[in-house]
TrEMBL record:
<dbReference type="InterPro" id="IPR050712">
    <property type="entry name" value="NAD(P)H-dep_reductase"/>
</dbReference>
<dbReference type="Pfam" id="PF03358">
    <property type="entry name" value="FMN_red"/>
</dbReference>
<protein>
    <submittedName>
        <fullName>NAD(P)H-dependent oxidoreductase</fullName>
    </submittedName>
</protein>
<dbReference type="InterPro" id="IPR005025">
    <property type="entry name" value="FMN_Rdtase-like_dom"/>
</dbReference>
<feature type="domain" description="NADPH-dependent FMN reductase-like">
    <location>
        <begin position="3"/>
        <end position="156"/>
    </location>
</feature>
<dbReference type="InterPro" id="IPR029039">
    <property type="entry name" value="Flavoprotein-like_sf"/>
</dbReference>
Amino acid sequence: MIPRILVFAGSVKSASINAKLADAAQLTLAQLGADVTRISLLDYPMPLVDEDLKAREGIPMGAMNLGRLISANDGIFIASPEYNSSVPPLLKNVIDWVSLISEDDGRPLKPWNGRYVALGAASKGKLGGIRNLYHLRSVMMAVGTQVLTEQCAVGGAGSAFDEDGRIVDERASGMLDKTCRSLFDHCKRHGRVD
């Protein structure tokens, strides 16, 4: 079985260093033999989570479309920026909306449930966004994913990528390789959970 893996960054900022990390993860996973889908959250617009809005109008179309895509994949790689030592609001909002999905046209659908998730972060600082990964790991566990032990934090990310999109620092590159291989192996061994 060829693992299907979704890759995205928790930022839609132009020239995002986490988008560069997502691109590097995409390359690594494809080299391992995964069927990789790389998306931008910009293509899945959704308002702030609002239970009254959900009661009136249901789950926003952007969240539903993303939820369907998550469900169609075995695993997910998230490259997340760090905002004030934690998860950025865009990414948290996306995670929360998708977690509220319980059905699709009358069929049960819990997109996050049991998905294998690998986490990465890139930051211009020396810590590489590692403080955010602790919080993001907790959130992803709470919505029912299987978060892998391996993770990747790229410090000094303003100059961490070469012109081909690869990480130049040997240690950070090794972390990304190890993280991607673990995600690939888990997905290949266990496949889709639904």
